[in-house]
Amino acid sequence: MKLHEAxxxxxxxxxxxxxxxxxxxxxxxxxxxxxxRLFAGGATQVVIKAQVLVGGRGKAGGVKLAGNAEEAxxxxxxxxxxxxxxxxxxxxxxxxxxxxxxxxxxxxxxxRSSRGILLMASAAGGMEIEEVxxxxxxxxxxxxxxxxxxxxxxxxxxxxxxSVHAVISSSSSSxxxxxxxxxxxxxxxxxxx
Length: 193
Description:
The chain has 2 domains: 5-96, ATP-grasp fold, A domain (Dna Ligase, domain 1, 2-Layer Sandwich), CATH 3.30.1490.20; 105-186, no CATH class. The protein contains 5 helices and 10 strands, in the order αβαββαβββββαββα. The chain has helices at residues 5-14, 28-40, 69-80, 129-135, 175-186, and strands at 23-25, 46-50, 63-66, 83-84, 87-88, 92-96, 105-111, 116-122, 141-148, 164-166. α2 packs antiparallel against α3 (69-80).
């Protein structure tokens, strides 16, 4: 399943997790209205982000900052006119701009080969992660964090859910292995119900 950033934010919000403010807009006028609300609430800048299911949005001009509502409207018009990697931009996310002190990459993927969740993390950040992987594969930590146990009907619990378990290895000597162990330890308690 692929989700737009705005959709992921909404799922996190519904789960009770803190998520920055922001709204999806399909027109420049709607983007301006959202920006006006955010500036009235104390934002000093807003970010306008193309909502397309592809990487490289920023490099393609699909992520830009605006310092006022009029600028947000103009930028939204520009972004909504884009096609990024053959995908037309039909929606933008307008949100308060964050001061980014440090960027990391963290991903949880379904790994069909292990029948579980693959965690990937890198201190190299999220931009150009494919290039990071190609140039220095050791810069990305990959861990099979959760594996589905036998999900046959006889192995399901009373609710019908297959059980899962976190895979935690013993401490190790390399920094990437220690970081990996710390990451896994912080993600031990995950429920797929």
